[in-house]
Please model this.
Amino acid sequence: MEALRLQLRLGAVREIEVFVRHGEPAIVAGRRVREARGPWRIEEGWFSDTNVTRDEYDVLLEDGKLVRIYRQGKRWYIRGAYD
Model:
């Protein structure tokens, strides 16, 4: 039996509304989260003046869609979706 392999398709990054419960995303863009994995701390540009730090999560939404979101500062963004 062949293992299922998901591919993250990066899209245009856009800001979204996320409600957090017990430190994890609970509602993403109006849809309930069934499962969340993360956060994964990403640090880019630490070697230059453009240091960016964000926490990324993979979240399975109530409609079955699996997406990658991240928090940068106090704002949340969607980065892409798996297919």
